[in-house]
Predict the 3D structure of the following.
Amino acid sequence: SQQGEEDPQALSIQEGENATMNCSYKTSINNLQWYRQNSGRGLVHLILIRSNEREKHSGRLRVTLDTSKKSSSLLITASRAADTASYFCATVTSGTYKYIFGTGTRLKVLA
Amino acid sequence: NAGVMQNPRHLVRRRGQEARLRCSPMKGHSHVYWYRQLPEEGLKFMVYLQKENIIDESGMPKERFSAEFPKEGPSILRIQQVVRGDSAAYFCASSPLGLPDGETQYFGPGTRLLVL
């Protein structure tokens, strides 16, 4: 399996519910980032969490990072139909130049 | 401040033709990254360039693919003699600082290549 795997692969919830997505990775990292991609569009940067941080908030988003378990979670609270998109985590392995993206979680929020 | 620009947004080529994808980074950014995304998959790193230098091309196929970022003008990803398997979305990203010192990359809207 590759660096940066998200689960679940797909998630369908009702508007107003919370959505939680998880990301696991394999190597030591400098930081981890979450991106959103609407169908057929580019990526939008959501939030960056550094390896020495445990939790970060941005609006309705909450990201946690557990470096001992090499995992991160993205929580979207009070979801809206407009949150329907694919969500990717991306990591930069310490000392390297490239972002490694996971395969993404496809979130569908039903109105 | 315009974001990362890519053109064309959609490109159709027949097998054996050449595809040229262009990327203009954000103003003030001198680091450019190219990624490929196959349908229903995440982005795969291809190449990282600074002005006039290829820093890391470990994700780029050795044959038919090349990339450049000249002193003046956009970064170009070139695919020669395209095959159907090259059909994908190609994204460019830029950052003001390079990795590992830099952090956030800003992505363009992508070029969707279809090879017939």
